[in-house]
Design goal:
UCP020967, PRTase-like, transferase activity, alpha/beta, Phosphoribosyl transferase domain protein, 31% strand
């Protein structure tokens, strides 16, 4: 393990969370927040992922590029000169630095050999897709919590998550390509989720090498030893790489009471028609849910060109649930003062404390998953909000979704 030198303590009443990390030059990658969860009462809210906090849409794609560069450098022993430009964007979050870094990220074609990239739902679907974009000769799959009318190719559990069941529907042939599987998640806590999916994969597909890429890695020495023993038992090579390496310890506790969510009062929306892309089972075919080796960049540029004329000022582009990458990529082509974040199944606690990241929580029934409660956080004031949906929804379903947003105009875009 790298030498850990920076320690910070986050206190919430009697709960103290101590985080110690190794040196890095990526700036602030997360903020601490609370949740009602028996296993862990806190969580790391990413400042570069594009899930819970509004941010410039290029930032998550730059973070993905840095993960791809990290893996490439560790695998080949070669240095990527553009790493410094990518790191500076995460560190400063300066507009000019972000745009320079995004140009670099879009040009990366790192050759790591024939490999399959798998992103974890729901938070890392876009993160994994961004890694895949930067690696030549790879295919991409993301797991899903949604139930699709198709045989499940792979099933595993993400035990610490709010929703634990994970499935893959991609064709079996994709899982048999090459010897290397690259798993991408936003955070590694113990390594158990990675081991769960690897165990499921090894039951059906024999691979020699597994790589786990994450923004944050909090495994202890004990956890590291456990993953090494696991790899030895299966006869595989297993490596973990992350942007930030550290440990987390807690003392005390906090009693969090159930709290109501806001619902919002917005009611008016306008449907927008954009260029269509191939679909399968009602979903976009090439996002990774069913496996892909296609690029969606040209399609996302087309959609952006259709939406830009509707802009009048400060714009928010909203993804929904697992459908993060396409709205994020579309937003990245839409110019200045465009912000992105997404709805989520994960309930985060609103807590009154200085520097606490979650200031407002809105709740609604997701139009694409009618039985599932979704949330969105820290909704700001915008001139226009553009909610991008993967599947069609009724006016009644959309009326539920638009309520949280504060904007002169709310557009609903169905792919």
């Amino acid at each position: 393990m790298e030498k850990l030198t920076k320690t910070s303590v986050h206190r919430y009443e009697d709960l103290a969370v101590t985080v110690t990390t190794a040196p890095h030059n990526y700036g602030e990658l997360y903020k601490m927040a609370l949740r009602i969860n028996k296993k862990r009462a806190f969580l790391f809210v990413s400042t570069v992922l594009g899930k819970h906090l509004p941010l410039r849409p290029q930032l998550p794609l730059i973070a993905s590029a840095l993960l791809a560069v990290t893996y490439y450098e560790q695998t080949t022993g070669k240095q990527v000169a553009e790493r410094a430009v990518l790191a500076q964007a995460l560190q400063t979050k300066d507009e000019a630095a972000i745009m320079r870094a995004y140009e670099v990220a879009q040009q990366l074609t790192l050759n790591v050999g024939d490999a399959l990239v798998i992103g974890f739902a729901e938070t890392a679907t876009a993160l994994g897709h961004g890694v895949y974009d930067c690696l030549a000769n790879t295919h991409y799959i993301h797991s899903t919590r949604e139930v699709v009318d198709q045989p499940v190719t792979l099933y595993f559990e993400e035990e610490h998550s709010h929703a634990t069941d994970q499935r893959c529907y991609a064709d079996e042939a994709l899982f048999m390509r090459g010897d290397t599987i690259i798993l991408v998640d936003d955070e590694i806590t113990t390594g158990k989720t990675a081991m769960n999916i690897i165990a499921s994969l090894q039951e059906r597909f024999a691979h020699k090498k597994y790589v786990v890429l994450s923004l944050l890695d909090w495994r202890t020495a004990e956890h590291e030893a456990r993953t090494k023993d696991f790899a030895k038992q299966l006869g595989i090579e297993l490596q973990f790489y992350s942007l930030v390496r550290g440990t987390v310890t807690t003392s005390g506790a906090i009693a969090l009471q159930e709290q109501p969510s806001l619902t919002g009062e917005a009611a008016q929306f306008t449907r927008i028609t954009v260029p269509k892309a191939p679909k399968y089972q009602g979903y976009l075919r090439d996002t990774g849910r069913f496996g892909t080796n296609a690029s969606l960049a040209a399609y996302c540029q087309q959609v952006a060109q259709a939406l830009v004329p509707l802009r009048t000022g400060r714009t928010a582009v909203i993804g929904t649930g697992e459908f993060m990458y396409v709205p994020m990529k579309v937003a990245s082509y839409m110019g200045e003062d465009v912000w992105y974040h997404a709805t989520t199944r994960s309930p985060i606690y609103v807590y009154d404390a200085p520097q606490y990241p979650i200031t407002a929580r809105y709740q609604f029934q997701a139009p694409e998953e009618a039985a599932i409660t979704h949330y969105i956080y820290n909704v700001a004031q915008y001139d226009e909000v553009m909610i991008i949906l993967e599947r069609d929804a009724t006016d009644e379903q959309i009326a539920e979704l638009v309520r949280p947003f504060h904007a002169s105009t709310i557009y609903v875009v169905t792919m």
